Amino acid sequence: MKTTQIWCIGGRGLNSLVRLRENFPTAEYCVVGSVQENLENLDTTTVLLEKSEVKQKTMFGGFFNALCKSEPKSKPIVLVEPHFAEIIEKLQGCKKLILVAGLGGDTGSVATPAIAKLAKQQGCTVIAAVTTPFIYEGETRTKLAQQALQELKDYTDECIVVDNQEMLMLPKNISMQDAFAEMDNITVVKLKEHI
Q: Quick one: which of 39, 69, 117, 174 has the most CB atoms within 10 Å?
């Protein structure tokens, strides 16, 4: 078991997986998501989170209530609690945990602070590298990202924040794919100080 683990959470985390592996090949990887198709055929450990329409259940860290107030009632919510034992088992032997996620959606915003807290309770050093939404993504995603970031800072030794809005400062002729790759490069450079 490798003592440094990198967990790629949600869509942002999954999109960063290849670049992270290129730069940190000796780490152990885990991908956490809520869409089965995204986790199929990956040659890494995965955690598939379930979604629920149940609105009265208290979610870990208060995020369930925040989502219920701001999202349409028909939108499924990511549930992390049923996976606590599985997550703790995957953290066995881990001394340093790196969490890579985008905040603003439910998977990154709900799962990242929950996993950080569980890892802290297991004695891990926890470092998060997260992105925050573009302004045009709306107030709901921005508020959810801010709530997640506040809670995440309570459970991490270091929290690296990359604002997606910074992409707008890149050259106008850059493709969206290259812009996201540049944001990944920023994340990698900042993580190299800790790995």
A: 117
